[in-house]
Design brief:
The protein contains 15 helices and no strands. It is an all-alpha fold and 400 residues long. Residues 225-386 form the DUF418 domain. Pfam families: DUF418 (PF04235).
């Protein structure tokens, strides 16, 4: 299979950049509030007025959408790096280093890490890289369906038991735990480490069981989309336009119904189950719509300049992802940070995200104007190849 030309690769870089920026709109809740509030928005701080509107916008347009795109691109990256031959090249050392970096990120910085899951699943997903696009899509859908049975089915299984376990004693215990957690996060980095490590361990085990099949399925579909030419903007303008129009509308309607179901039911157990059902499938459709729209723009020369900052952010996705953690940890965790955990409402969380977006869209092109890789991309590549890689761009001699 011939490699796409440089112009087409801009489509993948831009989509990756949009994905790494987009996931922060959801991740910020995991930095600013309790992990319980990420799943149940009524658990901590205000959820009325503008705060409810911000939550609704994030849930409709961002929830599961950009992690879906990111996972799909990770699968495509496996084919790009390992190829389709017998030799996987440096894929396994690459995944092992990613696993180590992800573990450090998860247990020392932020419990919501996705790198550990990607590394572990990436070691398995590489086995499928030589399958045909049709087979990859089929198995991808099967795996996504398995995850749906656990995530959506589990939400509905909880409905008959709603309220049975809610007692004053348990409410008091939860309130005490939330207070202790908030105090530890505000106190300082060392004080919150046990909380963070505990949530990381629980999240990784539970996430791999319930969410892991979806991630693996998306990696398979990403391989298929790369092989078919979708991600390299090789399809026709008309095809991308039709796909974008259909999937953006359908995905929005499903996602919107999921959000409104939760709000209308005041986030009770049944409302959350219904909302999860719509959102799980809506996120798949809407994320495909986002990707189709980016591919469409990548084929239109007039939008090339618009996509370039996102492409730079995408080439430095690893660095930008970890940088987001460092910024948010400094803001929300105490000494040596600011310790604002549990005090910044959703409206202001969104404002912080917009600021980080602006910074990363500016600094990524500036960095790449001088260097070949982002800082962490360089570290990862150097570890994988067991020697320091050239970092500075070579300057061409002046003509004449």
């Amino acid at each position: 299979m011939a490699s796409p030309n440089t112009e087409r690769l801009i489509s993948i870089d831009a989509l990756r950049g949009i994905a790494v920026l987009g996931i922060l709109m959801m991740n910020v809740q995991g930095f600013a509030m309790s992990p319980f509030a990420y799943d149940n928005p009524t658990m901590q701080m205000d959820l009325t007025g503008a705060n409810l509107s911000v939550w609704a916008i994030a849930h409709t347009f961002f929830h599961l959408k950009f992690i879906t795109i990111f996972s799909t691109l990770f699968g495509a990256g496996i084919v790009m790096m390992a190829g389709t031959g017998d030799d996987t090249g440096r894929h396994y050392p690459r995944m092992l280093w990613l696993l180590l970096i992800g573990a450090i990120h998860a247990y020392l910085l932020w419990w919501g890490d996705i790198l550990v899951s990607y590394a572990l699943l990436g070691m398995l997903a590489v086995k499928a890289r030589r399958m045909s696009p049709g087979a990859l899509v089929t198995w991808g859908i099967v795996l996504i369906g398995v995850s749906a049975l656990m995530m959506v089915g589990g939400a509905w299984l909880a409905v008959p038991f709603a309220g049975m376990s809610e007692t004053p004693e348990q409410d008091a215990m939860m309130a005490e735990m939330m207070a202790g957690m908030t105090q530890a996060y505000q106190a300082g980095y060392l004080e919150r480490l046990p909380w963070n490590a505990g949530f990381a361990a629980i999240g990784q085990i539970g996430g791999l069981i319930a969410f892991g099949p979806r991630l693996m399925g998306l990696m398979f579909i990403g391989m298929a989309l790369f092989k078919s030419g979708f991600l390299s903007a090789s399809w026709s303008l008309g095809r991308y336009a039709v796909l974008a129009a259909v999937t953006l509308v359908a995905g929005y309607l499903l996602s919107h119904m999921g959000t409104q179901s939760m709000i209308a039911g005041e986030f009770d157990t049944e409302a959350m189950a219904l909302g999860t059902s719509y959102s799980y499938f809506g996120s798949l459709v809407l994320s495909f719509g986002y990707a189709s729209a980016v591919m469409l723009l990548a084929k239109l020369g007039a939008f090339r300049l618009l996509l370039m900052p996102f492409a730079s952010a995408g080439r430095m996705a690893f660095t930008n992802y970890i940088a987001q953690t460092l910024i948010m940890t400094f803001i929300f965790v105490g000494t040596p940070g600011l310790g604002l955990f549990g005090t910044v409402e959703r409206v202001d969380q969104a404002k912080l995200v917009l600021i980080v977006w602006a910074v990363q869209l500016i600094w990524s092109p500036l960095w790449l104007s001088v260097f070949r890789f982002g800082p962490l991309e360089w570290v990862w590549r150097s570890l994988t190849y067991k020697q320091a890689q050239p970092l500075l761009k070579r300057r061409e001699p002046a003509a004449g």
